[in-house]
Amino acid sequence: MVPDCVSEDTQKADYHVVASIVYRANGAVAPPCLGLYSGLMSHYYAQLNEILTQRCSAINVQQNVSLIRTEPILLRENIVQVKNHLKTMKLLRG
User: Fold this and answer.
1) Is residue 2 part of a domain?
2) Domain limits at 49?
3) pTM
4) Which one of 19, 21, 33, 90 has the largest count of C-beta atoms within 10 Å of its C-beta?
5) What are the CA-CA distances from residue 80 to residues 18, 28, 30, 44 (Å)?
6) 3-state class of 86 per DSSP?
């Protein structure tokens, strides 16, 4: 017997999503500076979580969205990719 790929309790199913942004910096980005991207984003997690949760929710379904990690990657000396890892969880409204 092969188990289902989706949990039986789909009312509490959660998903992990990666939103990727690639942009060109005005100059060369030193690899040690990449951590600053993560640090800066982490200051806005609570605010962004609230906005994304509101925008992703509907009348009967509360969609809880949480930023869990920001991963900056230097693609070229002035090209930075920022991967924002999010977790979404559907909660039924009573």
Assistant:
1) no
2) 12-85
3) 0.76
4) 90
5) 16, 10, 11, 19
6) strand
Report the C-alpha gap between 69 and 52 in whole angstroms: 15
User: Domain for residue 26, yes or no?
Assistant: yes
Average pLDDT over residues 40-63: 89
What secondary structure letter does DSSP report for 39? H
Provide the β-strand partners of residue 22. 81
Please indicate, yes or no, if residue 25 is contained in any of the structural domains: yes
**For strand 79-92 and strand 61-76, is the pairing parallel, antiparallel, or unpaired?**
antiparallel
How many Å separate Cα 39 from the centre of its chain? 15
Question: Would you say residue 62 has pLDDT above 90?
Answer: no
Length of the chain: 94
Quote the number of domains for the chain: 1
Structure confidence by residue, pLDDT tens digits, 22-47: 999 999 999 999 999 899 999 999 99
**Cα(29)–Cα(12) distance, rounded to whole angstroms?**
41
Contact indicator for 70, 55 with CB cutoff of 8 Å: no
